[in-house]
Design a protein that fits this description.
alpha/beta; seven-stranded antiparallel β-sheet; about 20% strand; binds adenosine-5'-diphosphate; binds magnesium ion
């Protein structure tokens, strides 16, 4: 077969020939393509391999070897043998005809009880840097590309990286640079590999897998990488009939629909009541207490009025149009309630009631019934089994728990569970303000991706937080997140990191691809910042929500204790940042401020003599310095209060400042003063330094995206 491909693509002719190979294998009920079949496909795309000749007899093997030139390699060709070396099916470095004859006999002898197609005859490839390239399919994200270095790098160190397909050139660049073995590729003892050819190979493999959904999994293991070009030495594919493409398209006007969820003109509450302690009491009381900026219609067949507001027996009796309905009636009555809402022409239905798919077969059936109803009417549904949304900007507080006064903040958040969302709102009320919180519950219809897409476009929201247990919409999630992260930071905390995968694994690639690796890849690919734990999440949120992004990697550290200065320095460098170098004239001015015994100019260490005035002057030098991209100040908890007004009076000219107060838990009053003034406080300087680095990385990516 000739190679008639374009730069990266699968040409029409090679496409037909590839398809014929897949059809034949699938027609024979095989799930596995043998090496020579794979290599024929690869060659047709212009990928260099050791060839796909198969000999049917010893004489033919010798003839082929003579034509190829020695040394050669012989390998078993059998649909029953996946790991050829294990059972003596690979004979390397055969120098002459005699060696070929001997090897042929040994291979045929070793596999006499298997179905043998023949013996492959290949050129012995020159040694190179061994790499592995693979593709596996994730049930949620679809095909995923893997790259890593072969040999012990993959076997022992699991030094591999993933990206969800399709990939951009930027993704491929990042994959190559991300593996720990990257220095071996870039150049080691004067030898480097052809990175462009490697990128091209990765692109071609992506193209191949996207063109042929029949390819379920693929391993090129090994590929030898050379200073010029590369050589695929072994290949295998697992195939299955092409699955139906599942549409992950959102309905075209998601953003407009979600705007109605967060900014409805009117809300009806089905199950609103004046009886304290009931959910229907809490939800309606929240809307009244937070002064919802729209019309409210309590729906209750047994009351004339609810909490002082005229009530209706059914939503269909409300004389005006209703944008959004909150359903709080028991699960048994919810189907009818949803039906009535649809008849009324409600655009968004929020089902907070529990007792659906999460409880078993009956609940599942009810949920399915609801799905059909809303589909027929074209409205959207949040939940069931959720705690609604909160939008503090218009007092739209739908929570099932009573919620006290909230600030109008610039953080938007999605969470699966209502209790979690309520907990953080209450707990963090003093140190950070959320603007929008959405709980998605069973996410029967509206998903985290819909909310994310919307939050990207809401002008009140500068930072998006996602607390997620599972990511559903796969590729659409990545596409949406990639767009949102161009505009504002998205920070995700993903639960279930260690959940063991239960999928059946056949390829090497699949065995290396745990669910969490794929999630991580999806996050990285779309520019989402992944938080390690809740503390990290909130630490990131308050910095991104309150402080500007660093415009450079040089940081000025101001401390009262040398050891925390050292800790800050270490963490900065470990995270790709550095200490800033003040200009000579600024250094002189700084020396004038410092006590005589202080010698270090960054970290600036005041050792217990720091006062507010010195701090102000030092910070101002940092703001003037061209080399300072951001500041970290380590403040003494006992006198924290004395710094707050000074810090507030400084013009930072767009430079971020993060503070550390060791064991801040014991001086929370002053810490809250600081936080309320817009200065994020961390109890470890490592956290402050790491977060500044996260912010800087995000700003670099944002700039790069803006240029692209
Ligand atoms: P399998 O993975 O099924 O055991 P391979 O085809 O990968 O079999 O062969 C095993 C090893 O032999 C490879 O990892 C590679 O190091 C070496 N090898 C195989 N074919 C060649 C070849 N044509 N040229 C050089 N080395 C080869
Ligand atoms: Mg192999």
């Amino acid at each position: 077969m000739n190679s008639r491909t374009g730069e990266t693509g699968v040409s029409v002719t090679s496409g037909e020939e590839c398809r014929a190979i897949f059809s034949q294998a699938i027609g024979e009920n095989r799930t596995y393509l043998m090496e020579h079949e794979c290599k024929e496909i690869l060659e047709s795309m212009g990928i260099a391999t050791t060839g796909f000749l198969v000999a049917g007899s010893e004489d033919e093997a010798v003839e082929m070897s003579n034509t190829l030139g020695y040394p050669v390699v012989l390998k078993i060709v059998s649909p029953d043998v996946v790991h050829k070396t294990d059972s003596g099916g690979v004979k390397l470095n055969l120098a002459d005809e005699d060696a070929v004859r001997a090897a042929y006999g040994e291979i045929v002898g070793a596999f006499k009880y298997q179905h043998i197609i023949g013996v492959a005859v290949q050129k012995m490839a020159d040694p190179g840097v061994e790499a592995i390239i693979g593709v596996t399919r994730d049930p949620n994200f679809g095909p995923v590309l893997m790259f890593g270095l072969g040999g012990i790098f993959v076997e022992v160190l699991k030094d591999v990286t993933f990206r969800v397909l399709p990939v951009t050139l930027q993704d491929i660049d990042e994959m190559i640079q991300e593996i720990k073995g990257y220095p071996l590729l870039k150049g080691y003892r004067g030898k480097a590999v052809d990175i462009d050819a490697l990128k091209n190979l990765l692109l071609k493999i992506s193209e191949l897998v996207l063109t042929f959904p029949e390819i379920r999994e693929l391993d090129l293991n090994p590929v030898f990488l050379y200073p010029r070009g590369n050589m695929t030495v072994d290949a295998r594919m697992f195939v299955s009939p092409a699955p139906e493409a599942v549409s992950q398209q959102a309905s075209g006007n998601t953003v407009e629909q979600m705007r109605t969820l967060f900014y409805p003109g009117s809300i009806a509450v089905l199950g609103a009541t004046s009886v304290e302690g009931k959910l229907g009491y809490n939800v309606f009381r929240n809307l009244l207490f937070h002064k919802f900026a729209g019309k409210l219609y309590p729906i209750n067949p047994k009351s004339e009025s609810v909490q002082g507001v005229k009530a209706y027996r059914s939503i269909t009796e409300v004389p005006d149009p209703v944008d959004l309905a909150i359903v709080l009636v028991p699960a048994s009555a919810a189907v009818t309630a949803v039906e009535e809402c649809c008849r009324k022409g409600v655009k968004i239905i929020v089902v907070e009631t529990a007792g659906f798919a999460e409880t078993g077969a009956d609940g599942k059936a009810a949920q399915e019934k609801i799905r059909e109803i809303i589909k027929a009417h074209g409205c959207r549904l949040l939940g069931p089994n959720c705690s609604g949304v909160i939008n503090t900007h218009v007092g739209n507080v739908q929570s099932i728990g009573l919620v006290e006064e909230l600030g109008k903040g610039n953080i938007g958040m999605t969470a699966q569970a209502g209790v979690y969302a309520a907990g953080i709102l209450t707990g963090l009320r003093h140190v950070m303000n959320f603007g929008i919180v959405a709980t998605i519950g069973n996410k029967m219809d509206i998903s985290e991706t819909d909310i994310l897409e919307y939050l990207g476009s809401d002008d009140h929201i500068d930072v998006v937080a996602m607390y997620m247990e599972d990511v559903k919409s796969g590729r659409r999630f990545i596409d949406v997140a990639s767009e949102v992260t161009k505009k504002k930071p998205v920070i995700a905390l993903k639960g279930g990191r260690t959940a063991a995968g239960t999928k059946v694994v056949s390829s090497h690639t699949a065995s290396l691809a745990g669910n969490d690796e794929i999630n991580s890849a999806a996050f990285r690919q779309s520019g989402i910042i992944r938080a390690r734990d809740n503390e990290h999440l909130f630490g990131l949120l308050k910095a991104f929500a309150r402080q500007p992004l660093p415009r450079g990697d040089g940081i000025l550290v101001i401390t009262y204790t040398g050891s925390l200065g050292v800790a800050a320095t270490d963490t900065l460098y470990l995270n790709g940042m550095r200490l800033a170098e003040l200009e000579p004239e600024l250094k002189e001015r700084l020396k004038g401020i410092l006590p005589d015994y202080v010698t270090s100019l960054n970290p600036v260490d005041y050792s217990f003599s720091m006062d507010a005035e010195q701090l102000r002057k030092t910070i101002e030098l940092g703001i003037v310095s061209e080399d300072v991209g951001g500041l970290i100040v380590v403040l003494q908890g006992e006198i924290l209060g004395s710094f707050v007004d000074t810090l507030r009076s400084i013009d930072y000219k767009g430079k971020p400042i993060l503070s550390c107060v060791a064991v801040k838990e014991f001086m929370m009053e002053d810490v809250i003063l600081m936080e309320k003034a817009g200065f994020p406080v961390y109890s470890t300087v490592e956290m402050a330094a790491e977060i500044l680095a996260d912010m800087y990385r995000y700003s670099l990516r944002k700039d790069r995206q803006a240029q692209a």
